[in-house]
Write a structure and sequence with these properties.
Layout: H1 8-16, H2 25-57, H3 61-89
Helix pairs in contact: 2-3
Length: 111
């Protein structure tokens, strides 16, 4: 071990480590879902604001019903993404809804 050559064991250990700039797929997926979650929340808040605006103006039943449906759809999408994000980050699942496969309700075929 010379001072120019360094410790070969240390160099070998360092070369076996992964590139520190590489992002693990699970981390990348959690950030992607987090961004989708933030966008879905923005869509829901916009839809809720629009519905409230129509409601306060008294625009009529049909536009209000459409606005409520849009708000409901945006909230459902937000909840779906939050569920997937939670499963990935807290439960460590790779894909959405893997935890609930075994907890499916019994059917006539299963009995």
């Amino acid at each position: 071990m010379g001072w120019l050559g360094g410790d070969t064991r240390k160099r070998e250990a360092m070369s076996e480590q992964s590139n520190p700039r590489e992002v693990p797929p699970r981390t990348e997926e959690s950030w992607r879902l987090r961004l989708k979650m933030e966008e879905a929340l923005r869509r829901y808040r916009t839809a809720a604001h629009y519905r409230k605006m129509l409601q306060n103006r008294g625009e009529g039943l049909i536009p209000l019903m459409r606005a409520r449906q849009g708000e409901f759809d945006a909230l459902a999408e937000y909840n779906r993404i939050v569920r997937n994000y939670t499963e990935l980050t807290v439960c460590g699942l790779e894909g959405p809804r893997k935890a609930n496969k075994s907890s499916a309700p019994p059917t006539a075929a299963n009995n």
